Amino acid sequence: MKVKRSLRVSELIKREISDIIARKVRDRLVKSIIVTQVKVTDDLKIAKVYYRIIKDKTNKDKIEAALGRVSKFIRMEIGNRTELRYVPEIHFFYDSGMDEAARIDYLLEKLKKDQAE
Q1: 8-17, 49-58, 103-112: which has the minimum mean pLDDT?
Q2: What is the share, in percent, of the chain residues with pLDDT greater than 90?
Q3: 75 confidence band (pLDDT: 50, 70, 90)
């Protein structure tokens, strides 16, 4: 069974971005994230990069701005490191999945507690 090219490119870009952030980017705010997922469109033009903040979530707006500043550098680095004919445009999105899961767990526990009383 063939794997879609966009899925292979997504994994490649995820690995490269994680490595670039760890080794090349100097901004401490950008270094405070981890890439959780990358989704590349089927035409390979746009990469949606989802990230989580490791430490202080109060800097979320500053981190978003910093990611916007380094996105062109990261794209250029990916172009230098890979053999992709076209490097997708990179857009960063905060991955709120874990926050939502924690909120749902909290609500379920609260519901159990209320029913027990």
Answers
A1: 103-112
A2: 68
A3: very high
CATH code of the region 5-116:
3.30.300.20
Boundaries of every domain in the chain: 5-116
Q: Which residues contact 34 (CB under 8 A, 6 or more apart)?
A: 18, 51, 52, 54
Please give the order of strands across the beta sheet that includes 33-40. 33-40, 46-53, 89-94
CB-based contacts of 89, cutoff 8 Å, min separation 6: 45, 46, 47, 75
CA distance 25 to 112: 46
Give the strand pairing for 46-53 and 89-94: parallel
Q: What are phi and psi of 32, to 5 degrees?
A: -90, 15
**Contact, 9 vs 40, CB < 8 A?**
yes
Which residues does residue 52 pair with via DSSP β-bridges, in sequence order?
Answer: 34
User: Residue 24 — pLDDT band, cuts 50, 70, 90?
Assistant: very high
pTM for the structure as a whole: 0.81
